[in-house]
Write a structure and sequence with these properties.
alpha/beta; elongated; binds magnesium ion
């Protein structure tokens, strides 16, 4: 950029200088020519020569001038293109990050003391799956469509693309309530299906907003606060807006603290795994589910429902996932005939190296792949991109079983089962809890079990808490059973003890039979 500007200045100086030189030479010649009438004839020859020299110089200068003009017009076009690229984003046509920040900074300085502005941060939801499924052209289309939507919904707003799928925009706004309403209206507008490549595409975005000057008057803080609000909107389920408040700051600090402690807990081996039996029709243990436990010395028992989402929002989930798998498969050496179920999170499956990681841990522990089941939550199924399906298939090709956990909670129905490579489903505990309460619930579980059975999937009933639920689940056609009624999750030593006792009893029964 600086080079272009200096070239521009050099060119301009030359251009300005050249006419002056030409004019002074032409002036000298004209003066000489006019003197020609009064001077002596012997002076005419040198004057004529001077005139001829001036003419040659003039012609050369004119040529040079034309060349310079050509160079300069090219330079101006290049410079304009460069400035354009510096200010406006190629894909979306809104301001680049740098230009946006400069514009907002100027806008904040020019703000009158009683003027309120709303600073919005926006993240498009699910850009990566969109790119994975439909290619980068669809992703680019979505980004430019979002920019266009912001522009149309908020005329006159300063709009910038901060990078990737992140946008920000600033506009005058009376108060936070109005800003939230505008944000909600925008989400609805964006949710209208739009046609691209001959198919309808439904987009959504999460937004965070912070009011200036109510919460801050500084640009850096406005960006940070809007971002914190944005993540709150994402955590609350995306496709919505959240306004920043101080409580969020405390939440963030808390999350950062837990993240730091979790990192240390993995290193210090503070995490533990408990195992819950899954039994067959005859009550014998067929499998155990590995459940992660964290007993923090300072905070006591921290629920996986708290720390797993925190781990998922960072790369920590990969480390945690590998730790759980390695520990569970190592523990499984003392439970030789049992299958081990390990939960896998959606963010682990979004990474390509998950297949290599599982293969590596199986190799290191010597655990037979046939005796490993990976449990996915139904939300994974809903977000399953072709890449995720490919990874699941690669895992199944190794002989590993795949199970769909919490089935029935994500409105997925059976449609997902048709294209998702799975071997079993676990009917969610909420259905099992209602067994016996009404005929509808009984029929519903029977229907789930019979469709799954027809697709040759095993059906696990989870969350069985009493004998009547067990009997009804059996009658409904479920094949495997898990819940407090059979056994609670227990530490490794207890599960090994239970396994040995059961094993001895089974052998005795076989001998006496
Ligand atoms: Mg599970």
């Amino acid at each position: 950029m600086d080079r272009v500007i200096s070239l521009w200045n050099d060119g301009r100086d030359l251009l300005h200088g050249a006419p002056r030189t030409v004019l002074s030479l032409a002036g000298a010649w004209a003066l000489a020519a006019s003197l020609g009438a009064t001077v002596q004839p012997w002076l005419l020859a040198p004057i004529g020569l001077a005139g001829a020299v001036a003419l040659v110089v003039l012609a050369r200068l004119a040529r040079r001038l034309r060349a310079l003009e050509g160079d300069l017009s090219q330079l101006t076009a290049d410079q304009e293109a460069l400035i354009h690229r510096h200010v406006l984003d190629d894909i979306t046509g809104v301001m680049t990050r740098r230009a946006f920040l400069e514009a907002v900074s100027a806008r904040l300085s020019a703000r009158s003391s009683d003027e309120a502005l709303a600073f919005f941060a926006l993240d498009m939801d699910h850009l990566k799956p969109l790119n994975d499924s439909f290619g980068h052209r669809a992703g680019d289309f979505a980004l430019s469509y979002i920019a266009q939507c912001i522009d149309q919904s908020f005329p006159g707003a300063l709009i910038g693309r901060l990078g990737g799928d992140e946008f920000a925009f600033v506009l005058p706004c009376a108060n936070e309530r109005v800003a939230l309403r505008l944000g909600r209206d925008f989400c609805c507008e964006l949710n209208r299906p739009v046609m691209t490549g001959g198919r309808p595409l439904t987009l959504s975005a999460s937004l965070g907003v912070v009011m200036v000057p109510e919460r801050t008057v500084y640009l850096s803080e406005a960006m940070q606060f809007a971002d914190i609000a944005l993540y709150a909107a994402k955590r609350a389920g995306r496709n919505q807006i959240a306004a920043f408040d101080e409580e969020m700051m405390r939440d963030l600090k808390q999350r950062r603290l837990i993240e730091r402690e979790l990192r240390a807990a993995i290193l210090l081996n503070e995490l533990d795994i408990h195992y819950q039996p899954i039994t067959g029709h005859d009550g014998r243990t067929i499998s155990v589910e590995a459940l992660l436990r964290w007993q923090s010395p300072s905070r006591g028992n921290i629920s996986p429902a708290v720390f797993i989402p925190i781990a998922e929002s960072t790369a920590l989930i990969d480390q945690l996932g590998e730790w759980v798998l390695r520990r569970a498969l190592s523990d499984a050496r003392e439970l030789p005939d049992l299958n081990i179920s390990v939960n896998v999170s959606a963010s682990q499956l979004r990474r390509d190296d998950v297949v290599d990681m599982v293969a590596r841990v199986l190799r290191e522990t010597g655990h037979p792949p046939r005796q490993l089941t990976l449990e996915l939550t139904e939300s994974v199924a809903i977000q399953a991109t072709p890449d995720i399906c490919r990874r699941l298939q690669a895992l199944r090709d190794m002989g590993i079983l795949v199970s769909l956990d919490d089935f029935g909670t994500g409105f997925s129905g059976f449609d997902y089962l048709r294209h998702l490579p799975v071997d079993s489903i676990k009917i969610d505990r909420s259905y099992i809890a209602k067994l016996g309460e009404s005929d509808t619930d009984n029929v519903l579980v029977s229907a789930l079990a019979s469709v799954a059975g027809a697709m040759r999937l095993s059906v696990v009933a989870e969350g069985i808490e009493n004998e009547s639920q067990l009997l009804l689940a059996k009658a409904a056609g479920c094949t495997l059973f898990q819940g407090y009624f059979m056994a609670r999750p227990m530490p490794k030593a207890a599960i090994v003890q239970r396994y040995r006792t059961e094993h001895a009893r089974n052998q005795q029964e076989t001998v006496s039979a």
